[in-house]
Amino acid sequence: MKKILIVHAHPEAQSLTSALKDVAVTTLRARGHDVQVSDLYAMGWKAGADADDFTDITNPDCLRYVAESRHAFASGTQSPEIAAEQQKLLWADAVLFTFPLWWFGMPAILKGWFDRVFAFGFAYGVGQHGGERWGDRYGEGVMAGRRAMVILPIGGRAPHYSDRGVNGSLDDILWPITHGTLFYPGFDVLPAFPVYQSDRMDDERWQQVKVDLIDRLDTLFDAEPIAFRTQNGGHYDGQQRLKPGLGGGEGGTRIHLVQPGDPVETVPRPARRAAS
Question: 0.85 cut: is pTM over it?
Answer without folding.
Answer: yes
